[in-house]
User: Which sequence fits this backbone?
């Protein structure tokens, strides 16, 4: 049997990866451009990174985004865990299908509609839009993703472990924390990472639910780009890519180590 | 469930003086009172009453789906009875949740906590009791020695062999010194040799700890070897309770006779019964059957005679005519080393199973396929069953 890559494979890989990564590579390269003009290469420079550090507006947006991400991902993970436990453990309770449908519906719902409905809710509640409305909105939407990830792991978890813990004198809720949680921890961590990432790069929902003083990074980038692409945006995007890539690689290595232990 | 009284005959090859169930003053540790449990309309346990005494090694034996595991889970608290009562040391267990019951269970899958080391698995129950740290350490060391796992304290469950995991599960369940240990098919995952060894280890351990053990198994050999008494279950009901020898030698029904060990069952009509002997007419044996049996059976009724293969003798020379004698032809031979099983096709067309211990290395005349043989058995070899 022939092994290795055929010409067809190579061509499809080049085209596929080209579409995916060429724009990103360009962006990274131009973040080191000495020229202010985005399309003209004016020599290597890191001055945009330096000027980024002096751009209060961008730094503020980064700080807001991280706070929103951390808090909303944590809320989403906790709620998602509860939802997953209810779905996997409660068996066939009345309205289970409706419940699971309602949990998973936001996965396929257009973000614009989610954002709009959340905005309407906050308006009718008379809540001033700002940091907390974005955070709550992100938690609401990413909770569904967290629930899906955790549910998959929980379904494969041997229920008898919890029974064994109870049998040895551990009350049910304590048994969940002492036995179930440590065993589904990788999925919980993965769910948190997913929720954090989703929050990090959300533009649509944040645009609807944010208010003055709570501009997230994607919102800031988007509004600046409308006025023309600045090399500072390239620099902040490069940093963001670096951060996400580091996170993904770290998670992968962690998982590999866990697997080789197991 | 009444046990048959046989005042003149000693049943079985084992003599045991431990028999609290025969003592009217003895108080049971566990009492099931007419317990019923249904799942979605299917009756898993259909009215079971059962007493288990302190220090007893009790076995629930039956095919899968007979309700034996449900009965155990009712005791552990993972199921609640639809009606009836379960008491432990005189105390009603209703409303007590699993973690409040002083019984521990060893799960069929062992259910070891994968994220904890062997020693922390064993310490888990002790921690829940709030035992001080140094005492926990002592108890864990003691338990590891008891199940011979001294060097493996820091291993994780996935680094252990099946037999070692089984011993960790056992140590974890007995470490908190429960009033009673429940074992759900504890040896099912082990290979045959290890299973046999472990059966004897379990018995020794139970004696050493003086703990009451309840074992659930579908393996009759496991139940026979380990238990003081066996309850044979069928479709959610107990059909017979007795010592292993009672259940084997004096089954009360064709179901029990057939479930425990091999058995040949002959149908016949009782011709004579006087409380010491029963005579039966049967198409299988021209001379009829003549059995020592102290039950007074109604003459002329249909009855079944159950005879174990090892109690049937195979003759190559024709024995004198008389009762308990059948003629046939060797249809098949199964040589097991210690035993040889003969399948004998009778003149009536039925196939009978006879077994012989291979007590010597040499025989004068080996038995061959298609040999004409005669089968006989002693008057005390069979048991007459009416249901």
Assistant:
């Amino acid at each position: 049997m022939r092994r290795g890559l055929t010409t067809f494979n190579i061509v499809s890989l080049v085209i596929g990866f080209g579409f995916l990564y060429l724009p990103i590579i360009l962006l990274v390269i131009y973040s080191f451009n000495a020229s202010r003009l985005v399309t003209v290469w004016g020599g290597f420079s890191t001055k945009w990174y330096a000027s980024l550090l002096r751009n209060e507006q961008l730094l503020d947006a980064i700080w807001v985004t991280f706070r929103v991400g951390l808090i909303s991902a944590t809320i989403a993970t906790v709620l998602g865990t509860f939802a997953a436990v209810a779905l996997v453990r409660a068996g066939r309770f009345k309205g289970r299908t409706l419940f699971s449908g309602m949990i998973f519906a936001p996965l396929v719902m257009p973000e614009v509609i989610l954002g709009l409905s959340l905005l309407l809710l906050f308006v009718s509640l008379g809540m001033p839009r700002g940091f907390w409305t974005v955070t709550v909105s992100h938690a609401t939407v990413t909770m569904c993703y967290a629930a899906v990830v955790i549910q998959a792991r929980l379904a494969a978890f041997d229920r008898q472990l919890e029974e064994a813990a109870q049998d040895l004198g551990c009350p049910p809720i304590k048994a969940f924390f002492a036995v179930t949680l440590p065993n589904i921890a990788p999925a919980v961590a993965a769910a948190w990472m997913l929720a954090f990432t989703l929050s990090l790069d959300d533009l649509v929902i944040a645009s609807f639910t944010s208010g003055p003083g709570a501009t997230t990074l994607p919102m800031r980038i988007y509004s600046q780009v409308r006025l023309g692409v600045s090399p500072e945006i390239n620099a902040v995007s490069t940093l963001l890519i670096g951060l996400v890539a580091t996170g993904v690689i770290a998670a992968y290595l962690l998982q590999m180590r866990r697997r080789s232990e197991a | 469930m009444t046990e048959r009284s046989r005042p003149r005959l000693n049943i079985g090859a084992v003599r045991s003086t431990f028999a609290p169930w025969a003592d009217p003053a003895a108080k049971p540790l566990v009492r099931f009172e007419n317990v019923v449990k249904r799942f979605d309309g299917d009756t898993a346990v259909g009215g079971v009453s059962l007493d288990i005494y302190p220090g007893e090694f009790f076995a629930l034996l039956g095919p899968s789906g007979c309700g034996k595991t449900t009965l155990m889970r009712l005791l552990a608290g993972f199921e609640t009875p639809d009606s009836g009562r379960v008491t432990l040391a005189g105390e009603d267990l209703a409303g007590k949740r699993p973690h409040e019951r002083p019984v521990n269970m060893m799960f069929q899958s062992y259910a070891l906590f994968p994220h904890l080391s062997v020693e922390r698995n064993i310490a888990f129950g002790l921690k829940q009791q709030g035992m001080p740290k140094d005492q926990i350490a002592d108890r864990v060391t003691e338990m590891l020695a008891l199940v011979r796992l001294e060097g493996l304290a820091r291993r994780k469950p996935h680094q252990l062999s099946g037999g070692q995991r089984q011993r960790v599960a056992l140590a974890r369940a007995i470490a908190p010194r429960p009033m009673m240990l429940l074992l759900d098919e504890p040896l099912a995952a082990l290979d045959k040799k290890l299973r046999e060894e472990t059966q004897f280890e379990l018995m020794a351990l139970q004696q050493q700890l003086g703990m009451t053990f309840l074992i659930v198994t579908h393996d009759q050999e496991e139940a026979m070897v380990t238990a003081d008494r066996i309850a044979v279950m069928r479709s959610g009901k107990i059909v017979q309770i007795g010592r292993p020898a009672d259940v084997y030698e004096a089954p009360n029904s064709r179901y029990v006779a057939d479930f425990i060990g091999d058995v040949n069952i002959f149908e016949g009509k009782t011709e004579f019964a006087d409380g010491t002997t029963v005579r039966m007419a049967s198409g299988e044996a021209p001379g009829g059957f003549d059995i020592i049996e102290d039950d007074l059976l109604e003459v002329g009724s249909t009855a079944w005679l159950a005879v174990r293969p090892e109690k049937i003798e195979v003759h190559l020379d024709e024995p004198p005519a008389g009762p308990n004698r059948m003629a046939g032809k060797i249809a098949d031979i199964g040589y097991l080393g210690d035993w040889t099983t003969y399948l004998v096709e009778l003149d009536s067309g039925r196939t009978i199973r006879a077994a012989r211990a291979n007590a010597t290395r040499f025989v004068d005349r080996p038995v061959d396929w298609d040999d004409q043989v005669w089968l006989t058995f002693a008057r005390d070899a069979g048991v007459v069953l009416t249901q």
Observations:
- The radius of gyration of chain A is 23 Å.
- DSSP finds eleven helices and no strands in chain A.
